[in-house]
Amino acid sequence: MIQRHKTVAVSVGGVVVGGDNPVVVQSMTNTATEDIKATIEQTAQLAQAGSELVRITVNTEEAAAAVPHIRDGLDKLGVSVPLVGDFHFNGHRLLNDFPACAEALAKYRINPGNVGSGEKKDQQFADMIETASRFDKPVRIGVNWGSLDKQLVVRMMDENAKLPEPKETEEVIRDIMVVSALENARRAEELGLSAGKIIISCKMSGVQDLVGVYQRLAEQSNYTLHLGLTEAGMGSKGIVSSTAALAILLQQGIGDTIRVSLTPEPGQSRTTEVTVCQQILQSLGLRSFMPQVIACPGCGRTTSTYFQELAKEIEDYLKQQMPVWRTQYRGVEEMDVAVMGCIVNGPGESKHANIGISLPGTGESPAAPVFVDGKKFKTLKGEGIAAEFKQILDSYVQDHYTTR
């Protein structure tokens, strides 16, 4: 059991983040927000994939004007996912000039490095916090190492240079990230926003940097924490880097909401980042979203590709059935299904799963024993193995999971 770092719970449009609540999955659209139709469609896709919060860019007057229409359109589709507004540079003005936008959003994201400079920074930050208080909205104070507060950087770099043994630049940057987040969170409290309305994040693109910063945040505060590796990258690089960083922190009990910021490959769905978040949480045993298919990698004993094809077919079948099963059966997302390729580990792994099938390897008897809850159930043969195995899955779900 992972011992969670205790943080203050924050309600974001009815989704409670922090405290003793499960880690929440977040995503972000990449549509132009003023394109109402496209933003509604992508937000709905992300929500259908399992995103529990969706962030949208609010960078222009047209985008701000579109937000309430996006909210209305989603509501008409029955999509209740809370919308988070991502503000930079002109957020104070947009929130003031478009009160319907301020009302429609469930949370505002403020980047302290992009609020302004000098006296303007203090006033513009205060304006955004005042709007959040007036509309009773939580705020994420999101520090990003690509857009740090320049005045804070100069101040802390100068202070470091005067030390008898100055720290390395990378170490000072980590310090700046933490100080920026905490100073601005406390400033928000001084302006009247309670700790129960504040989420903080410190986005970095290096795994060790991110881990180091969040460990310090957890040691120094109990604010709700949003985790994410910024500019993670594309494909396997982005997935592996994000997984490495988030898994370390989540294993230490740090983090209340997460996002995997993947650069989509051409033609790839934006929902991939949601799936990766879910797999990280499920692999760590923190939450369950989908029945898991356990399949061996294959070796010289499994020259046939049939077990690979069956594993893919069963995984696709589970994804297809889950929207229905989820509404009908409680706990089905925790089911384990094994599709194994030979006699070496096949029977053993199949017995450990709720349902498992051990396919014959090269030179083995052309029969596939099926195990249900550790006991041999029957042996399948012939051309209809996939169809029969699906029928066994359907029956198991109906018989073993409580109807809602």
UniProtKB/TrEMBL annotation:
<dbReference type="GO" id="GO:0141197">
    <property type="term" value="F:4-hydroxy-3-methylbut-2-enyl-diphosphate synthase activity (flavodoxin)"/>
</dbReference>
<feature type="domain" description="IspG TIM-barrel">
    <location>
        <begin position="7"/>
        <end position="277"/>
    </location>
</feature>
<feature type="binding site">
    <location>
        <position position="299"/>
    </location>
    <ligand>
        <name>[4Fe-4S] cluster</name>
    </ligand>
</feature>
<comment type="similarity">
    <text>Belongs to the IspG family.</text>
</comment>
<keyword id="KW-0479">Metal-binding</keyword>
<dbReference type="InterPro" id="IPR045854">
    <property type="entry name" value="NO2/SO3_Rdtase_4Fe4S_sf"/>
</dbReference>
<dbReference type="Pfam" id="PF26540">
    <property type="entry name" value="GcpE_C"/>
</dbReference>
<feature type="binding site">
    <location>
        <position position="342"/>
    </location>
    <ligand>
        <name>[4Fe-4S] cluster</name>
    </ligand>
</feature>
<dbReference type="Pfam" id="PF04551">
    <property type="entry name" value="GcpE"/>
</dbReference>
<dbReference type="GO" id="GO:0019288">
    <property type="term" value="P:isopentenyl diphosphate biosynthetic process, methylerythritol 4-phosphate pathway"/>
</dbReference>
<keyword id="KW-0408">Iron</keyword>
<dbReference type="GO" id="GO:0005506">
    <property type="term" value="F:iron ion binding"/>
</dbReference>
<dbReference type="InterPro" id="IPR016425">
    <property type="entry name" value="IspG_bac"/>
</dbReference>
<feature type="binding site">
    <location>
        <position position="349"/>
    </location>
    <ligand>
        <name>[4Fe-4S] cluster</name>
    </ligand>
</feature>
<dbReference type="InterPro" id="IPR004588">
    <property type="entry name" value="IspG_bac-typ"/>
</dbReference>
<feature type="domain" description="IspG C-terminal">
    <location>
        <begin position="292"/>
        <end position="394"/>
    </location>
</feature>
<keyword id="KW-0560">Oxidoreductase</keyword>
<keyword id="KW-0411">Iron-sulfur</keyword>
<feature type="binding site">
    <location>
        <position position="296"/>
    </location>
    <ligand>
        <name>[4Fe-4S] cluster</name>
    </ligand>
</feature>
<dbReference type="InterPro" id="IPR058579">
    <property type="entry name" value="IspG_C"/>
</dbReference>
<comment type="pathway">
    <text>Isoprenoid biosynthesis; isopentenyl diphosphate biosynthesis via DXP pathway; isopentenyl diphosphate from 1-deoxy-D-xylulose 5-phosphate: step 5/6.</text>
</comment>
<dbReference type="GO" id="GO:0051539">
    <property type="term" value="F:4 iron, 4 sulfur cluster binding"/>
</dbReference>
<keyword id="KW-0414">Isoprene biosynthesis</keyword>
<keyword id="KW-0004">4Fe-4S</keyword>
<dbReference type="InterPro" id="IPR011005">
    <property type="entry name" value="Dihydropteroate_synth-like_sf"/>
</dbReference>
<comment type="function">
    <text>Converts 2C-methyl-D-erythritol 2,4-cyclodiphosphate (ME-2,4cPP) into 1-hydroxy-2-methyl-2-(E)-butenyl 4-diphosphate.</text>
</comment>
<dbReference type="InterPro" id="IPR058578">
    <property type="entry name" value="IspG_TIM"/>
</dbReference>
<dbReference type="GO" id="GO:0046429">
    <property type="term" value="F:4-hydroxy-3-methylbut-2-en-1-yl diphosphate synthase activity (ferredoxin)"/>
</dbReference>
<dbReference type="GO" id="GO:0016114">
    <property type="term" value="P:terpenoid biosynthetic process"/>
</dbReference>
<protein>
    <recommendedName>
        <fullName>4-hydroxy-3-methylbut-2-en-1-yl diphosphate synthase (flavodoxin)</fullName>
        <ecNumber>1.17.7.3</ecNumber>
    </recommendedName>
</protein>
